[in-house]
Amino acid sequence: MTEPAYPAKPRPGDRVAVLSPASGLPEVLPLPFELGLRRLVEEYGLVPVEYPTTRRLGATAGERAADLHAAFADPQIKAIVTSIGGDDQITVLPHLDAELIRANPKPFFGFSDNTNLLMYLSNLGIVGYHGASVMTQFGRPGAMHPLTEASARAALFTSGEFELTPSPETNDVERRWEDPETFESAPVMEPAGGWSWHNADRVVEGAAWGGCVEVLAQLLMADREIRPADEYAGGVLFLETSEMLPGAEEVYRVLRSMGERGLLRQFPALLMGRARAWSFDKPNDAAGRERYRAGQRAAVLRALAEYAPDTMAVFDVDLGHTDPQVVIPYGGLVRVDGPARRIAVVY
């Protein structure tokens, strides 16, 4: 496996591509998208550049791949920021020109279904950034959360170490993006319990690998982009689940499959994102959300006990489908210090 390298970072005033390689939801949900674009301009000093499929729902895999190629090939584009996730990005991967992308590395920001591209880039030797999409983080109602803003800014513009800190508050109860009133105030937050540690008796430093559990399941089933297990030895696994709210047994089965493949035991440390526990289809109350998170935590610990009993794990890290959200450098260095209860990433 190629050792990933960090692409050069953009600077204020630079042009950045805004793409929808997973789903063109800006076409039908313009309010968070336009807000996110304004913040990229007004708060980050960047110049967003849209492409033919950025606001086109239902674009083919080949058309989305063409936009990716155009953005990577353009020397004036200094980074790529995704609009949002989706559910079929795995179909885009066969259309990609690996040599073109490898020859023109750029920071790529996205999460959820963009796990596909982040893994693809990592296999090409390019560090990507799991997090900070236009509609979800930059387009957050009211204001960006300070923790998200600091992490996104550091990931976009800096190249050094960034220490993660647990958020004292969280929220996953959404309001309708079709309603303009949604964007007049920030989400109502509730207290968060901080990180929860397991086997926290060592310090682990390694390359980050993982992403959205449901997307990893697709890649495992398709046998796509997953390298031989021993190539991940010593890395830091990070996992999170989406607004689809997979059940605890489903999460366990995905991790069991990773265990049977020999993957889980390769990672001496795991960062588990704070589980999203509410959706419009499953509007759990506070007690229901806590039960859901507890069930998922138990499922992960069950899989670790069976396949990687010595792995250190940190639960409820603010990564993935959660608010606030920190950015994880995919393929980049992460240090997990169990005795000190600290996590640092290198952007």
Automatic annotation (TrEMBL):
<comment type="similarity">
    <text>Belongs to the peptidase S66 family.</text>
</comment>
<protein>
    <submittedName>
        <fullName>LD-carboxypeptidase</fullName>
    </submittedName>
</protein>
<feature type="domain" description="LD-carboxypeptidase C-terminal">
    <location>
        <begin position="205"/>
        <end position="336"/>
    </location>
</feature>
<dbReference type="InterPro" id="IPR029062">
    <property type="entry name" value="Class_I_gatase-like"/>
</dbReference>
<dbReference type="InterPro" id="IPR040921">
    <property type="entry name" value="Peptidase_S66C"/>
</dbReference>
<dbReference type="Pfam" id="PF17676">
    <property type="entry name" value="Peptidase_S66C"/>
</dbReference>
<keyword id="KW-0378">Hydrolase</keyword>
<dbReference type="InterPro" id="IPR027478">
    <property type="entry name" value="LdcA_N"/>
</dbReference>
<dbReference type="InterPro" id="IPR040449">
    <property type="entry name" value="Peptidase_S66_N"/>
</dbReference>
<dbReference type="InterPro" id="IPR027461">
    <property type="entry name" value="Carboxypeptidase_A_C_sf"/>
</dbReference>
<feature type="domain" description="LD-carboxypeptidase N-terminal">
    <location>
        <begin position="16"/>
        <end position="131"/>
    </location>
</feature>
<dbReference type="Pfam" id="PF02016">
    <property type="entry name" value="Peptidase_S66"/>
</dbReference>
<dbReference type="InterPro" id="IPR003507">
    <property type="entry name" value="S66_fam"/>
</dbReference>
